[in-house]
Amino acid sequence: MLLEIIFSDWTKADDGNLFANTNGLVTKTKGKPAYANVQDQVLEVEAENARFNVASDNAKDGSKSAKTTLEKVRTELLFKLKILFMMMELNVNEPESYFLNAGLRVRAKPVRERTPLERPELDYFVRDVLSGTVRGKVKNFPKGVTQLAVEYSYDGGTTWHNGTYSAGKIFKLANLTTKVTVTVRVKFLGTHGRQSDWSETREVFVL
Predict the structure, then answer these.
(1) Residue 162's beta-bridge partner residues?
(2) CA-to-CA distance for 65 and 88, rounded, in angstroms?
(3) Between 15-29 and 39-58, two packed helices, what is the crossing angle to 10 degrees?
(4) Phi–psi pair at 42, nearest 5 degrees
(5) How far is CA 206 from CA 67, 81, 201, in A?
(6) How far apart are CA 74 and CA 11, in angstroms?
(7) H/E element holding 39?
(8) Which of 49, 85, 98, 191 could cysteine-pair with 22, CB 3.0–4.6 Å?
(9) How is 51-111 classified by DSSP, letter by letter?
(10) C-alpha to C-alpha distance for 53 and 31, rounded to whole angstroms
(11) Rounded CA gap, 102 and 95, in Å?
C-alpha cells in the first residue's frame, strides 16, 4: 500500500504549532538510522525552522517588514518540509510506523494508474553563470509526471546527494563545491507513487 503524508496538517498550522511540530519532527528523525537516507534534508529543515523561530519572535513587534519576513521564511520552511516528505514517501517498502514514529499522519494513495513512467533523457547539463551553480534540462516531461528529482555526485556516482525537485523540464543546482567535477542524474516522479528509472549520468566541471 502506497502512503502519502498529510501535508495540510503543516500548511494549516499556526506559527507556534508549525515551529513546535517541526521541532518534534527533527528530534524524531535527526541522527536516527531509520531515516539515514533523508538526513541532509532533515538538517535543512532544522536550520530553516531555527530561522522561522527568530522571524516569529521579531514579528511580535508588529512591524510590517518583520511580518513580511516571517511570511517568506514560513513559505521556505514549508517548501523544505514538502521536499522532506516527498523523499520519505519514496521509501515505499517501509511500514506505516516509518511515518508514525516521525510524528506524521499518513493516508493511502489511490492507485488507478500503473503505467510505468519512461526514463528521462537529459537534453543538456552545463555550468551556470554563478560560481558553484549548474543547470540542466530534460528533453521529455510526459503526461502523469509531477516532479523531476535530481541527484548529484562528487565521486563519479559512488555516493549520491539529493539535489532538488523541479515541476518542469529545467532544473538548477546551487551552492555546489567549486573546482570539482559534479555528476548528475534525474528521475521522473509521477501520480500514484510511480517513478521512472534514473537517467544516464552527465558531468561538468564546476567553477
Answers:
(1) 151
(2) 35
(3) 150
(4) -60, -40
(5) 38, 28, 16
(6) 9
(7) helix 39-58
(8) 49
(9) HHHHHHHHGGG--HHHHHHHHHHHHHHHHHHHHHHHHHHT-TTS-THHHHTTT--EEEPP-
(10) 22
(11) 12
Please tell me whether residue 17 adopts helix, strand or coil conformation: helix
Tell me which residue of 152, 149, 153 sits closest to 194, measured CA to CA.
Answer: 149
- Cell representation of residue 158: 559512488
Q: H helices within 90-182, ranges in order?
A: 97-100
Q: How far is CA 170 from the centre of its chain?
A: 16
Residue 144 makes CB contacts below 8 A (sequence gap 6+) with 113, 115, 117, 190, 191, 194
Please state, in angstroms and rounded to a whole number, the distance separating the CA atoms of residues 51 and 64: 18
Count of beta carbons in the 10 Å neighbourhood of residue 56: 17
Per-residue pLDDT of the chain in tens (207 residues, 90 and over written 9): 678 999 999 999 999 999 999 999 999 999 999 999 999 999 999 999 999 999 999 999 889 999 999 999 999 999 999 999 999 998 888 899 999 999 999 998 765 556 789 999 999 999 999 999 999 999 999 888 999 999 999 999 999 999 999 999 999 999 999 999 999 999 999 987 789 999 999 999 999
Any residues with CB less than 8 A from the CB of 76 and at least 6 apart, and which? 48, 51
